[in-house]
Design a protein that fits this description.
It is a single chain. By secondary structure, the chain is mostly helical. The protein has one domain (18-190, 205-230). The protein is 46% helix and 5% strand. The protein contains ten helices and two strands. The chain has helices spanning 48-55, 83-97, 103-115, 121-142, 151-155, 158-164, 172-183, 198-203, 210-222, 225-230; strands at residues 37-42, 74-79. It has a two-stranded parallel sheet. α2 (83-97) packs across α7 (172-183). The radius of gyration is 20 Å and the shape is globular.
Amino acid sequence: MDEHNVHHFWGISPAVDLGTLLPTGDGAADLPVDQPVRFLQVAPYDARHTLTTLSRACRHPALMRQLPPGQPACRLYVWEDSPEGLARHVLLAAVLLDGGVPAAQRGQLLLELHGNAVLRRRAAEYLDEKARQLESLFVGLAAGQPPPAGPEAEARGLAALAALLDLSLLKFQEKDLIVEALQRWRLPNPTSSTSTSAASASAAAAPYDMVAAWDGRCRKVYGGGGCWEQL
């Protein structure tokens, strides 16, 4: 989060296939034989490196090795300065793995969720669905429950995502904050006019006005209302 209370959702460096950073030729002998290759990403602000590395892992023998049971060939550690950043990181990986959506449509959704501040209704509905799936997955993994199984979980990539995620380094409070971030991506639920509870009022709130928020941020960064109107 910067001094304007805005979370960074995009990095400024090109996407890197982390497998290309591994030594090749004679240098490959220096890689651990019985341990996974480990990469640390510090505040990447989006999942570009993770998605690129996952997509191109088959190009690097070191990332496709067969290690003893329970040992993956590669471990990606991601540190973000906000729970929203981690939640979004997992969201983009979940979209990549969602085999229940045709590849072309999945690519469009991935680009829209990654690059746009304002979403189409169709993308917002998909985000709502995916956020609920990820919330259930996070809560289950944090509680030590078995990962999702069955044809639906396999098709939607939830089983694969559960196998990729390791929440052991997160504190309980951090897990709760990630779940809260996922819950904020839900679409508002219609409620009856007679409902007066705080929970119902929150659920019935209007969708977040991103256009007004962006306008307010620009006014704050570039000057007051009078200066902005003259631009």
